[in-house]
């Protein structure tokens, strides 16, 4: 064994694994220096002393060389790791993806803020509705042709024959008809009037359902916003003023509204309303409205009387409107297909997130 050769090999070891191999080779149980130590017993006392001293010096120098090289290799490994993991604080940060409100929620929130500024309260109603509140009480009895305009999802409660559709005060209304997924939010007009006495101003946001084939302009589920105002001396002028204020809230101070006569069974007279969009210089047809039909007030008072409540809707007038939330978004942003709203198309949704 040559000490200088061993020291040179240790000083040139390129890794901790190679260094460990050299340590085993020279100082291990069967290493070269260990084997040399085992031969000392074959020497004379004088030779053993001299040879033992030399071998001990070699062992000490080898151990120091191994420790020094190990420290150097570890320092080099740490430096490489720091270089690999170093962070350039001058680089721009990573933009992590974030969620946001759905386009429908954004439009609905905008509409509700406008009506709250006008003093309206926001109320909600059940999505599973009785045939009475969804149709009959809105002047659409079973034989009325207006029912044909709304293909309906009828609901069956399997295994629960005693399931009840509740009225405004929790009363059973099963005997007044079957259960449907509401086709419009207008049923909440009747529910609210039974529970409250005028004057009041409310808007009703919510999902509605139509049983129809889907295409670019039709979807089985969408959102509506219903409005109802009842009190003494309420006129079409009040309705026109509210819709005009909505137009200004949506499209700026130059926004305005126009009415065109039409028919809805629950208002008389009825109108379609459009809003002027100054930026695009075009009219947007957005919904229907009109004066609350006297039949609805009679239905409400009759219902209240059955519940032992005083009649409250004689001598009052009111107006109501309804509009599609997605329709406003489609017209405002030029969206070509209503199905994009609920297909979880991130390429579409992330354009509008709030």
UniProtKB/TrEMBL annotation:
Q: What class of enzyme is it?
A: ligase
Give the matching InterPro entries: aa-tRNA-synth_II, aa-tRNA-synth_II/BPL/LPL, Phe-tRNA-synth_IIc_asu, Phe-tRNA_ligase_II_N, Phe_tRNA_ligase_alpha1_bac, Phenylalanyl-tRNA_Synthase, tRNA-bd_arm
Q: Which CDD domains match?
A: PheRS_alpha_core (cd00496)
Family listed: Belongs to the class-II aminoacyl-tRNA synthetase family. Phe-tRNA synthetase alpha subunit type 1 subfamily.
Where in this chain does the record put each Aminoacyl-transfer RNA synthetases class-II family profile domain?
100-350
What cofactor is this protein dependent on? Answer: Mg(2+)
Question: Which parts of the sequence bind Mg(2+)?
Answer: 268
Q: How is the cofactor bound?
A: Binds 2 magnesium ions per tetramer.
Alphabetically ordered keywords of this record: Aminoacyl-tRNA synthetase, ATP-binding, Cytoplasm, Ligase, Magnesium, Metal-binding, Nucleotide-binding, Protein biosynthesis
Any one GO molecular-function label of the UniProt entry: phenylalanine-tRNA ligase activity
Q: Which GO terms describe its cellular component?
A: cytoplasm
What GO terms in the biological process aspect are recorded for it? phenylalanyl-tRNA aminoacylation
Question: Coiled coil located at which positions?
Answer: none
Per its record, the protein catalyses:
tRNA(Phe) + L-phenylalanine + ATP = L-phenylalanyl-tRNA(Phe) + AMP + diphosphate + H(+)
Subunit architecture:
Tetramer of two alpha and two beta subunits.
- Gene3D superfamilies per the UniProt record, alphabetical: Bira Bifunctional Protein, Domain 2 (3.30.930.10)
Main localization (coarse): cytoplasm
The subcellular localization recorded is: Cytoplasm
The protein, known as: Phenylalanine--tRNA ligase alpha subunit
EC numbers on record: 6.1.1.20
């Amino acid at each position: 064994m040559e000490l200088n050769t061993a020291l040179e090999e240790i000083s040139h070891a390129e890794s901790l694994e190679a260094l460990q191999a050299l340590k085993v080779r020279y100082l291990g149980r069967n290493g070269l220096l260990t084997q040399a130590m085992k031969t000392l017993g074959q020497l004379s006392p004088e030779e053993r002393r001299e040879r033992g001293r030399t071998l001990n010096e070699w062992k000490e120098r080898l151990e120091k060389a191994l420790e020094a090289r190990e420290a150097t290799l570890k320092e080099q490994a740490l430096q490489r790791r720091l270089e690999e993991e170093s962070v350039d604080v001058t680089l721009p940060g990573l933009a992590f993806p974030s969620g946001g409100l759905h386009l429908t929620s954004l439009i609905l929130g905008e509409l509700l803020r406008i009506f709250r500024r006008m003093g309206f309260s926001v109320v909600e109603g059940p999505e599973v509705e009785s045939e009475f509140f969804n149709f009959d009480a809105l002047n659409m009895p079973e034989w009325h042709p207006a029912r044909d305009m709304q293909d309906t999802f009828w609901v069956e409660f399997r295994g629960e024959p005693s399931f009840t559709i509740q009225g405004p005060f929790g009363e059973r209304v099963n005997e007044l008809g079957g259960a449907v997924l509401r086709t419009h939010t207008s049923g909440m007009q009747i529910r609210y009037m039974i529970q409250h006495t005028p004057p009041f101003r409310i808007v009703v946001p919510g999902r509605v359902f139509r049983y129809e084939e889907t295409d670019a302009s039709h979807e089985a589920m969408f959102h509506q916003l219903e409005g109802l105002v009842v009190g003494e001396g309420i006129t079409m002028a009040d309705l026109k003023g509210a819709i005009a204020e909505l137009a200004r809230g949506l499209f700026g101070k130059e926004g305005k509204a126009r009415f065109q006569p039409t028919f809805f069974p629950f208002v008389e007279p009825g109108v379609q309303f459009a809003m002027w969009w100054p930026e695009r210089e075009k009219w947007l047809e957005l919904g229907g409205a009109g004066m609350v039909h006297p039949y609805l007030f009679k239905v409400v008072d009759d219902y209240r009387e059955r519940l032992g409540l005083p009649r409250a809707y004689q001598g009052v007038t009111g107006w109501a409107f309804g509009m599609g939330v997605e329709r406003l978004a489609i017209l405002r942003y030029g969206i070509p297909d209503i199905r994009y709203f609920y297909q979880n198309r991130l390429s579409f949704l992330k354009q509008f997130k709030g």
